[in-house]
User: Fold these one by one.
Assistant:
Number 1:
Amino acid sequence: MVSTKKNVNLGFCQGVVRGQVYSPHPDVVMFDIRVKNERKNPKTKKREMQILNFVAKDETAKLIKNSVKDKDIVFVSYHLEERVNVNPGNGLTKFVLDRVVDEVYVRPKTESGRPGYMNHGVVHGKYLGTTKVESADGIYNVCILFEDSARYKKQHFNFVVYGVLGDTLEKRFEKGQCVAVEYKVEKSKRIRKDGRTDYFTNLVLEKIA
């Protein structure tokens, strides 16, 4: 198959379904997949498990609702989709990034051994710039503009970059330059001074060209 789409927005994940599929609307389902983090925890030196959240719509949602169950080993392909979330209490709005499932494959129950974990995505878009996170050492945010008039509106995807790679991006790329980004989804948390914990789901940039 030959595609004339200008940009790519495609992710893959394989892991174990955690809990039951939840359907807040007849044409929408939400479910969680348990995967192993590819980056070791700097404190424990181990690759920890993390829970990634997915949403499916329309016909895909109906298929998942009838076919996917707790503890199933699944492989999903998905795309990133930005939406505006309105807080009903105060009316404030914020952008939320969903991982919207395009296809799902349930692995046969007859398979033996541990599940192979996968967590990988690719986005083509325009480089808009790199910003250093002032409150952290060696962490940067990279903004990519994604455009695909055939399916999506203009969307801004923010990626987290660790270490030396973040230092070089502003020298290597110009604003508006077309780039391809490889990323993985990673959960993280930060403990505030008051003792409360903030939880984050980041798109961690691994390669850019």
Number 2:
Amino acid sequence: MFENELNSEYYKKYVCDYLDKHVIILGKKINKVICILTFLLALVNLILTLIPAVSIHPILNILKTSTYNPIFFMLISSFLFVLNEETKEKKYKTIELILLVLSSIYIILILLSCSGIPILSGWGDLYQDSGLFLVIFIMFYINMGLILKKKFLLGQILGLSNFILGYTGFLFYSPGNTPTISLALNYLLFIVTLSIIFVNIRPKHGLTRIFYLKTTGSVFARSTIIVIPIFLIIGIFIIYGNTTLTSLDNKGSIVAGVTVLLLILILVSSTRKFTESDIFGEITHQQLCENKKFFEEIITEMDDGVIVTDKDDIVIYLNDYFDRYKIRYDTLLHYDIKTLTPYYEQLENEFIQMKKIKKSTFIDSITVNQNEKEIYLSGWCTPRFENNEYIGSIIALVDMTFEKEKESSLKQSIKDKNIMLAEVHHRVKNNLQIINSLISLKSRKIEDQYTLDIIKEIENRIKSMGLIHEQLYQQETFSTIDIQKYVKSLTSQIKNSFMGENIKFE
């Protein structure tokens, strides 16, 4: 999981954002100064080669012999100076290619001289280690091509290899006589310094990126990597000062070079681990802060009220919802919830019940006056637990005013409709009564008994219908009627309609 996170685009983007721009700018300035000084030193050496040795001061003579093949070092320092600008302008790209071509021509001339063709006469006789210098020059040239091809990691590894070779050569020749000191200066002033620039020319990429971050590990590594070679040189010369040796032997210088390489690799590996830990800690912290901010914004801006208490019923959080009701945040935070008036008085039973049963309890209704208007709230009291131990509660309140008003309006509407329907039933019953009375008046003029019986049956049916409507408008609901009461009334009416006709009812 860690490796997946390490290789994730988010991690790479975060590392780029975490680069210390001030350190990068400072590093580029140092690179520029070193390139200029190296170029000038090689140029001075080239000029001094035109002056006879007998006419030169001994110190200048050391300087004269401290640079072998100054033209090549002038080409490399110029190339690194242009590359250090890190620009996409076409003229700079053209200059870089020209310098690369000139360097390749010079390498070819050196190779031809080493093969016996006297193009650069005396190449192999001018100084010791000409073969090693040839290898280093070729490695410099390859390094130039790798950087132009944006193979920064390979270029840095090759630059580090040249640095170790130059550092080892410097240690090997430093304690000697004038010629060897000149050779040591050549290793130090050109090969070591230019190798350092090759390693640091692209600080945002490859191995060196971890030394340009804002993390604690990166800051420590920047200080340490400079101190390691210096202290090792001092230690070696202290040892040399207590011996009768005139120079370090091959074994000692190689051991010193390998030691520096191992220390640098250990430092890079350790710094990488510490930096990864720092960055992932920062990423985690940032994500936690973002998540906290995200959820706080949700809770703060939501249309529901949220109150959080601890195990002692002290309010530790409430959102901005309560500002609407003139309740200030700072007047309740860290106070007992019982001071939350008029809320607590209306939810006290639910709150106590929640603590007792250790389960969420429903808050049916809380009424609050706002601008002379009643606001209705409802919600839940929810306990909070940690390791099965009560640590507080969360009270969520929802504004139910609209629903309450809608419910009240609906009830009023139903009441009005019930009144209207009762009136309809009452009118229908009255109309049926009128119809029945008219039929009864007409029946008095009918003498035929058969017809009178039919009219009587019609009257009874109309009365039974009217009785149903009378029962409906006298009740609160219109969906049912009291059948027992209805049958008694209907029987009584039928009985009254046959009174005087010698009919006996049982």
Number 3:
Amino acid sequence: MAEVRREEFDEEMERREYRRRRRIRNQIIAYIFAVLMLAALIGGIAFGIHKLITLINDKKQEQELQRQMEEMQNNQEDPGVVEAPQTPEEEPVVEEEKSHLDEIVDACIAEMPLEDKVTGLFIITPEVLTDTGVVVRAGDTTKEKLRECAIGGLIYSEQNMKSADQLKEMISNTKGWSKYPLFIAVEEEGGSVSRVAKSGLAENVGSMAKVGEAGDSVQAREKSNAIAAYLADYGFNLDFAPVADVLLEGNTTLADRSFGSIAENVSVMVSASVEGLQENGVSACLKHFPGLGSTLEDTGAGMAVCDKTLEDFQTTDFLAFQSGINVGADFVMVSHLSLPNITGDNTPASLSDKMITEILRGQMGFNSVVITDAMNMGAITEYYTADEAAVKALLAGADMILIPEDFQLARSGVLEAVNNGTLSEERIDESLRRIYRIKYKDKAEELSDDMMEDMPVDESGDTPEDPSGEAAGDPSGETPTDPSGEAPENNG
């Protein structure tokens, strides 16, 4: 009997132990489940916060773009924007005090002969300047021509670039021998149009199309930073980039040069690129206004016509240009695209007062330098002589003429237009002020008021780049070298 009770007792104990172990197991399972649920909850909250922030940022960007377009449309519709000045009964306008930069610029322009003023509106190649073959060095010919011709800037290509030392010396000598500060320009977009990188003197950062596909504005800025770093190291101060054209879906005319076909995305990439270039001392140039992304025709070969309306551009292409303008792009390049539904005829945009003065300046608020696309392209040369095209571009509101078909004819044509009253000297000065605000913006803090009296240009050859009165182009007191070279190209 005792044994039976003992067995029953043992069985009871085993049942209790089993129940205890089961409770412990269930508790462990419950704890694990609770931890997993808590982790999922935390992850969901984090994802939700991230999504909310993204939506807020997207909404802000959408609202900002919408605001810009509404302002542009209001400017177009509101005739009050271009009405005559205030009547005498209204309060007199108080003239704002000139900034130190404006004082420097005005002092420079005031001393310029008219021929120098006009010549300073052109950017040409070193071959056109020297009237020789391919230039790979800045030698005596370059020195002499720069004394005779106060050109506004020079644009270089792969043929001018043989080695790092050669390129640096050529640019340094060229800058030093000029009577006035020069724009030293190049097309360095990244990808297929990268003159320095394709010459083997820098690493190609890759196409902007891939950056646009990634939708990464940080990457766009970093790549432009990298481009500006090596350009500045060689002596360049103007990059004809970024491409702000918004591609029509399926259009391959610009290949890998555009950030893409989504206007909002292109806008973000363009503004980041402008900042990436200019924060490193290289002026950015938005191109090709008003946008070549919808045409399959090449302005280099002849007339290219786009039937888009102003409203079409305002909801696509203009978004990217406006974005670059808003962050302070120094230049906008105007293309030779014909826009009959906006201008009423086939006048190229580069020669159109409607496109440059009324829309780009008036509606979009661009107050810096407007430069034409290269004027030796078929869309210009097939219909205008070099002098006609240059005068028409300036009358339309452009500030600088890029690579005219015949530089000497274009320059003499502008001089004649000023002398006969077609263009006023004040109109030329207006463009020069925009140009020299860029050329002198980094020097405004360095130059004292006393130095301004010694600025350009007098018979002794003192120059704005060397206001202290030292020999132009020779800040060290030594004559720039012009070593003999192995390349068969011209010494310049």
Number 4:
Amino acid sequence: MSADMYSQEVLTMLESSTEEIASAFAAAIGGFAAMGLIVLLFQFIFFGTLTYKLAHRKGYKGYFWTGAFLGFIGLIYVVGLPDNRRRRHRSSEDAE
């Protein structure tokens, strides 16, 4: 076998293995992207529901989208809201 044929064979092997590696890498990246979207969707629903329920307990309506889009920051925002039920109760007592 001549050196030229040997180098051609090595190049062919390298090209095919590079294509296989690139294909495997692309498949892995696609799997990670899908997993990332699932995690993102879970966070979206988790924080949206949590902020909605907390705001509802404090006497506010809505706030699902605040938690869904802002995540942990939205949760901190809702935690910092004053209790609206106490305000309503005080204002109704003052009116009497």
